[in-house]
Amino acid sequence: MQLHIRQAKVSDPDSEFHNKVVDIIIKDGIISKVSVSVKKTGETTIEADGKKVYASGKGILYVSPGWVDILADYSEPGHEHKETIKTGLAAAAKGGFTDVFLAPNTEPVVSTKSIIEFILKKASGNVVSLHPLGAMSQNTEGKSLAEMMDMQAHGAIAFTDGWKPVQNAGLMLKALEYIKAFNGTMIQIPEDASIATTGLMHEGITSTRLGMSGIPAEAETIIINRDLQLLRYTGSRLHFTGVSTAAGVDMIRKAKREKLNVTCSVTPYHLALTDESLSGYSSMYKVSPPLRSEKDRQALIKGLNDGTIDCITSHHRPQDWDAKEKEFEYALPGMNIQELAFNVTLQALGEKADLARLTEVFSTRAREIFNMPQAIIAKGSVAKLTIFTTVGSYTPTNMASLSKNNPFMGQELPGKVAGIINNNNYHINQ
Predict the structure, then answer these.
(1) CATH 3.30.70.60 fits 2-63+378-428, yes or no
(2) Is the pLDDT of residue 57 over 90?
(3) How far apart, in whole angstroms, are the C-alpha atoms of residue 418 and residue 430?
(4) What is the average pLDDT across 49-55?
């Protein structure tokens, strides 16, 4: 297969063509030529084996190293009525992700090499590369360590108990010590269950006005403080995902200054929304960790811009109709967001969005943190690319995902993902 991208502007600080308009030729999955475009005007086109498959409707498109989503839930095996690996990967491709880390919270849990192998086999041949996350504890019960080294040898990219954050400090200590043997990384959602499970939303003025029990910021900061102390003791590697509070960001900022091996990520919806979104009691906005205050949201944006926050991650968590269409108290948390992660992030950042920084948080930092091959736009490199625009708007009216728990449907959002190129294959959004 041969692809030809014409008139695309490179967003890749590691490439000699960064910020230049180029033509890119790809043969059999390898970039065979990158040349500065002689033609400086006109629309971007993508051709596959000589046939035009895409032409930009407005202005030039950007091309960057393929985006990475470090926590998404595809619900298979066990909950295929919410999402399957097939529909989840279709959502990822539509959203511009070439690589996805899959949450271990399935039935059975991803805590053995056999489940790792099952997932990889189901995803083989897809344009999106799927990377299973192995459970840190057996069956994510938080009681005893899973066979992490065995899972790592068979394809697990990192370890986490996913939507069930590790509460046992002693077990977390053992896990951080254990993964040092193979230079592994722990991923933790910073949430103290003993505090969070008693609330429905962020504790503040809005929760008081709505008469709903609150989840204070301490549910996050207690776990961050504890795990940073354990990290300081072990000298291991830890990534906090779904950071949602100003205090949490500040603690991680200080830990980085201390040179601890800690990184973190934030979701698009925590950047874009606040607890005020729950004023209508819509369960579409019920997520975990919860949407926080405007002060917290601004602190997340600041942390993203100053480099404290390393990555954007979707926390894509599909729920079926019955799980959401019930009383708020009983509705399950989660937002189906992977397809719109870029658009929602762009909306949240507005004029503060820096293209080079967006490339870092969507792609290159995750590749560095989790020891993935870089995807530099250069001759001889493997073609692992995301093509997108930051101008214009996109109004989503349908989804590739099986579930529909997304509050952004029908809203006009900035930017658009044109498509991805990966695994000697491509997906183009029309």
Answers:
(1) no
(2) no
(3) 7
(4) 89
